[in-house]
Amino acid sequence: MASSLYVRMSAFQMNLVPLQEPLGFIKVLEWIAAIFSFATCGGFKGKTEILVSCNGTKNETVTATFGYPFRLNQASFQSPSSVCGVDWKRHVLIGDYSSSAQFYVTFAVFVFLYCIATLLLYVGYTNLYRDSRKLPMTDFVVTVVATFLWLVSTSAWAKALTDIKVATGPRIVQELLPCKQSPTACHFGSVTSMGSLNVSVIFGFLNMILWGGNAWFVYKETSLHSPSNTSGSHGQGGAAPPPGI
């Protein structure tokens, strides 16, 4: 049996028909959506600026650079000189959102790799996939689990993104110790647009919808939808099992 499986696995035959069916076509969409998910989040770089004024100094810019994986508590402020006599490198942004960001990106990368593997199976080993009981069932279980994990990871990342926007926005002026001490006066300057991070959240929920919708088409390939033992018993002249079994 093992040798027979090895022979079938070695017989790679390109068949693009599954890509024209919902099962394969949606898998391609899932593959593309996964790329956008981890690329828009993992590739982000930004900065937030505040304007500092004191005796003899007016509106000097102090900048903190941040990005994936969003350990803001390690993003220190930088200035061309010691503005108002403050060592700004000792002051950092507030918050660590790396767990949510890394969970989201890591899961998206795994989904990307899984889509490549399943597309290879659909296209190169169509008969092996559809004649097997275990492969479609495994694919179905992974699809259901992935749908749930997309919901969990995207929701966590969306909440973290909301907190990141607050932590890098005007609120930082109220949190920085030098800005609370006279005669230093701080005003919020600007922060990099987080449009790409908003897109990552959108693609996360889009992935959840795609995987949830595709679960039905994967289910149709399993023995739960069309039990092979029913046709086998008819072919041998045996009695069909009672309905519901």
From TrEMBL:
<feature type="transmembrane region" description="Helical">
    <location>
        <begin position="137"/>
        <end position="158"/>
    </location>
</feature>
<feature type="transmembrane region" description="Helical">
    <location>
        <begin position="103"/>
        <end position="125"/>
    </location>
</feature>
<keyword id="KW-0325">Glycoprotein</keyword>
<keyword id="KW-0472">Membrane</keyword>
<dbReference type="InterPro" id="IPR001285">
    <property type="entry name" value="Synaptophysin/porin"/>
</dbReference>
<dbReference type="Pfam" id="PF01284">
    <property type="entry name" value="MARVEL"/>
</dbReference>
<keyword id="KW-0812">Transmembrane</keyword>
<feature type="transmembrane region" description="Helical">
    <location>
        <begin position="197"/>
        <end position="219"/>
    </location>
</feature>
<comment type="similarity">
    <text>Belongs to the synaptophysin/synaptobrevin family.</text>
</comment>
<dbReference type="GO" id="GO:0030672">
    <property type="term" value="C:synaptic vesicle membrane"/>
</dbReference>
<keyword id="KW-1133">Transmembrane helix</keyword>
<feature type="domain" description="MARVEL">
    <location>
        <begin position="18"/>
        <end position="223"/>
    </location>
</feature>
<dbReference type="InterPro" id="IPR008253">
    <property type="entry name" value="Marvel"/>
</dbReference>
<protein>
    <submittedName>
        <fullName>Synaptophysin-like protein 1 isoform X2</fullName>
    </submittedName>
</protein>
